[in-house]
Amino acid sequence: MKPIHTILALYTVQMAFFAAIWLAMAWLRLSRRATAHWGLGTLLLAVGMGVVLARPWLPPGLGSALPNLVHLAAAAVIARGVRVFVRRPGVDRWLLAVAGSAGGVVVLANGLGAPHAWTVVAAGLGMGLVLARAALDVGAGLAEEIGPAPAWVCSVPMWIIAGLLSGRAALALVGVSGSGAPLDTGQARQIMLSLALVLMALMLHLAMAAMLMLRLIQRLRHLSQHDALTGLLNRRAFGQRLEAERARQHRHPAPMALLALDLDHFKTVNDRWGHAAGDAVLVAAAGVLTGAARRLDAVARMGGEEFALLLPGTDLDGANQLAERLLEALRDLTVDYEGTPLRITASIGAAVSHDPTEDPEEMIRRADRALYLAKAGGRDRVVCAGALSVIDAPSTPGEAASPRRAA
């Protein structure tokens, strides 16, 4: 066996191995649609190179056109898988146009008996453009999810393979000697290109595996920091966010407010209509809180029917105004559970801190004490900790109930 055939056989086995891995991942439902595309595309790469190895036993026209058509289809399927992975759904007409046009030129060139260089130019440019588009999708589509640097690192193998294929096509187009010859001719240029493709194909699949692992890590991190039912931050993540805001307050002094919110008579909902109804109420209430919060605010479910909002750069008046808007929005909320309209109200305790040295747990305790006073004062109201006067509800010195409570 010639050295070039050994290299191409290694590439074929390598692609078959990776195809089996991707298809197994699809079977395990790990980013199923994307990994299924990658498995099918990689299998087509193995088939295409297998056709190259079988070229001596195939009709001349078929042996030239078929492997290039299969490789074009493989590149398009892998690129489509990338778009699925980065959540860019829909038919990509550009991708279809490039791959279809390149395939049409390959068929036409072989039908006319044109030199093999024509096939190299069409297939090389087609695959190069398709993979360059996939590299752009990776770099831009994953930047927000996993960070710009990791996203662009994952796209590098696609850029390099696109460059190799497009470069070979460009050399064949200008008539550089040997550039338009088939890969299995064994010329030095083809051997070097084949070795580069084997290496970069390995890097490509490692990069795609890294994309998958980084997404899984992000999902695990999200699950560890968010409440499974409502999607809000959990208590642990809220505490971390409070610590971070306290550190920022050290650097840039500004008031910071915390709202502790508890749904009134929530146990009655669970007891009367069941826990599924209670879950529906919690999800609806979480939507109200999220809709009222700013982008820089933090909203958390602290446990049960208790929620908390962290409001950086917000003073007592601002916290009280937001709390009143939340109470009004919750009063107006109707949760339709199996045809039964469920209504809820809430009690809110607010605490504001101007002191960056205050223990975050103490701020939470102050908000909780104010929440207790709001519930003791009749519910469906706001009590602000640290106010200078006592208004409209039984309280202790240092807490004041909002005068704008519901009747």
From TrEMBL:
GO biological process, one term: cell adhesion involved in single-species biofilm formation
Domain of life: Bacteria
EC number: 2.7.7.65
Species this protein is from: Rubrivivax albus
UniProt cross-references to SUPFAM superfamilies, sorted A to Z: Nucleotide cyclase (SSF55073)
Keywords on record: Membrane, Transmembrane, Transmembrane helix
Any one GO MF annotation of this record: diguanylate cyclase activity
Catalyzed reactions: 2 GTP = 3',3'-c-di-GMP + 2 diphosphate
Gene Ontology cellular component annotations, sorted alphabetically: plasma membrane
InterPro entries referenced in this protein's UniProt entry, alphabetically: Diguanylate_Cyclase, GGDEF_dom, Nucleotide_cyclase, Rev_trsase/Diguanyl_cyclase
CDD domains, per the entry: GGDEF (cd01949)
Protein name: diguanylate cyclase
Membrane spanning residue stretches: 6-28, 40-58, 64-82, 94-112, 148-171, 191-214
Pfam entry (one): GGDEF
The UniProt record lists the keyword Membrane: yes
Residue ranges of domain GGDEF in the record: 254-387
